[in-house]
């Protein structure tokens, strides 16, 4: 006798219907289901590589960087992208960016050496950040890398080194400024408005030992106002014009740093990030207009450097996993525990990450709090979301997690999972293996009396 | 365990409480449970029906069923027993 095929089970729910004001933005109430990433089934990924698993789409990385290039190169003659290592410095990821022509933008000797080992010429490394030891600076100077000076102490170190080194240091200064946005970042570099930046430039020029090659700024992060970049580009252009007037010195590049927003939604935002995030074209229009319309000599237009990180990689990253349990809280709210915690999803502290079921579900939803697996009260992935009724063992996927999570993650309570690259042909590759107990204890030592 | 008499349930899972004027929506499994309770079926019968017809483990169903009954109680949709 043939056994009857059983019906798909969904936990029983009852929801009170509240007649409220209609949503004037017309946002869909039905949740999208993501079963595949670049034609690879998420359930297959989880079966093969364990749960949870990070997956990065090579296709999306290449597509996004080419969109950025297209937006800028159609508006400005000389554009150079430098991959922001801190955003995601997995070697495989960096090599994709380098194969697309990106230089490396690093902020520590650890990242500098990573770039070198990834085959980047030292002459195509931009060394940013407030932490550069004398030994770091000597190495970067001798290798001919571009050093972006953060403070006067660093400038004096470089001047001191330049007196004995064979190579002339190639330097730029980092400039902070008021671009009309809040918060105004003033911790990186020299201030524009109070004359500190101009003072630093004069000292560099008068030292005669340093090659002043560029001007840099990093106005902030997740900047939703493209016009702020226009203000910043104008101010850097003014400094370039002043240098030309006073010293007849033409700088080679203007570096606009990073900070372009990604389509993730910030906590507390009224509208989803995918609706409010400016396009690359909007940023490009603001920046290139400011430089082109400045007084810079048209025969000597500087190269425009971009250190965009977040906006280039965020969309390419996913983390998929499994539902561990469902429970009802004392308040009556439904809660769901998943196997991705804040230890591997650092950005959940400031984003309302998009989470989707990875298999067919009905259109019924419940107001749900989604917790990670950690025995810590702060381990919340989404504090309130209308989410479909996933059962224990069902799969989910979190979108737009490519930026910062694979560098800022913490080994805390659980071990970090596999990271998979899905190449342009849909083939999967482990690009960072999951940790084991041995990985974590390899560096530990036990004193003799405790053995 | 019985659903109050003044409660009407439609084929599509729309539930209306004529005492309060509140309306509710049920998903397929919720609708099935309410239907069986309306037919005076016992808890045992409901459990057996689900385990025989749905792809669900006993523990999971037990857990979800108790939670659902609690919700019905909290929403004041069940007859007071005793």
Given the helix and strand composition of chain B, which structural class is it?
alpha+beta
Number of domains of chain A: 2
Mean residue pLDDT of chain A: 94
**Main pleated-sheet profile of chain A:** 9 strands, mixed
Q: Alpha-carbon distance between the termini of chain A?
A: 64 Å
CATH class of the largest domain in chain A: Alpha Beta
The gross shape of chain A turns out to be globular
Put the structure in a nutshell.
The complex is a heterodimer of chains A (451) and B (82). Chain A is an alpha/beta fold and 451 residues long.
Describe this structure in words.
Chain A is of the alpha/beta class and 451 residues long. Chain A folds into two domains: 36-56 and 315-434, Lyase, Ornithine Decarboxylase, Chain A, domain 1 (Beta Barrel); 89-308, TIM Barrel, CATH 3.20.20.10. In chain A, 28% of the residues lie in helices and 23% in strands. In chain A, strands 4, 14, 15, 16, 17, 18, 19, 20 and 21 form a nine-stranded mixed sheet that branches. An eight-stranded parallel barrel of chain A has the order 5-6-7-8-9-11-12-13, surrounded by seven helices. In chain A, strand 17 and strand 18 (380-388) form a beta hairpin. Chain A is globular and about 85 Å long. The model of chain A has no long low-confidence stretch (mean pLDDT 94). Chain B is α+β, with helices and mostly antiparallel strands. Chain B has one domain. Chain B has three helices and three strands. Chain B has a three-stranded antiparallel sheet. At the A-B interface, strand 1 of A face strand 3, helix 1 and helix 3 of B. Strand 1 (14-16) of chain A pairs antiparallel with strand 3 (23-26) of chain B, so a sheet runs across the interface.
